[in-house]
Amino acid sequence: MDSLLNKFLEYLLYEREASNNTIESYSRDLRQFKRYIMENNINDFKLVNKTTIITYLVYLQKIGRAPSTVSRNLASVRSFYQFLLNEGIVKKDPTVNLQSPKCEKKLPQILTPKEVELLLEQPDLNTSKGVRDRAMLELLYAAGIRVSELVALDIDDIDLELGFLVCSRNSSNERNIPIGRFAINILNEYLLNHRKNFVKDDSIKALFLNYHGKRLTRQGFWKIIKSYTKKINLNKAITPHTLRHSFAVHLIENGADLKSVQEMLGHSDISTTQVYAKITKPTLKDVYNKTHPRA
């Protein structure tokens, strides 16, 4: 159980770039939740159901926790189970439809297409490292996948001829995602001419390798993207997740329907995808005002 908690906290640190205070808060809430379920003879997070969550919230109320604290604990548990669901560790989220006080969702930070292009241009394509890094950045933006899914890709998960990748293979979140010509071209260059410079053991089938010939980690990629974001000096907090957010918003701005975007992102609930539509509204309004004869 501790290994899953630690994996989630690493995700918050390296993919969501959460603050130390936020991570400590999640850790405190979830370790309290773990103690509660173990005291009730549940020794696996997979065995938790909706009734378990409800009784836990009632328990918090009985011991005098403020409504805001109960709400925060539910939010922590919900985030944890969304992570487990997206990772294919659980098949259902036991917090679905459990109500907490309404809070307006913070809209995610995104990059404009020009800012994405600027970021993608940073790796030095005269080096194998630069080609590898460019391929990873292009793939994140081309497919909208999570960093955990990016580093988990094997060579066989990419079909450059058809222009598809298989994401989260053999999990409940497996999906086929199309990729564009820019990603295909740089991936082809990487696979043909540069991946071999990282290989130490031919039996390792990971798509992206580090200098030791091992599969690149989330932490390793986090350091890579931080080094490139420093170079472009945008007045925005860019995390590995920023390209995923930008992928979704740019698709919707250009006419993609929410259901298709939901499928490509691997969201279990379309309400998670709908937050991106809120970001595009000003752009759609501008289009309407410029094109409708009676705007």
Automatic annotation (TrEMBL):
Domain Core-binding (CB) per the UniProt entry, residue ranges: 1-85
Subcellular location(s) per record: Cytoplasm
GO CC annotations, alphabetized: cytoplasm
UniProt xrefs under Gene3D superfamilies: 1.10.150.130, Intergrase catalytic core
Gene Ontology BP, a term: chromosome segregation
Domain Tyr recombinase: 106-289
Gene Ontology molecular-function annotations: DNA binding; tyrosine-based site-specific recombinase activity
Record keywords, A-Z: Cell cycle, Cell division, Chromosome partition, Cytoplasm, DNA integration, DNA recombination, DNA-binding
Name of this protein: Tyrosine recombinase XerC
Organism, scientific name: Caloranaerobacter azorensis H53214
Encoding gene, per UniProt annotation: xerC
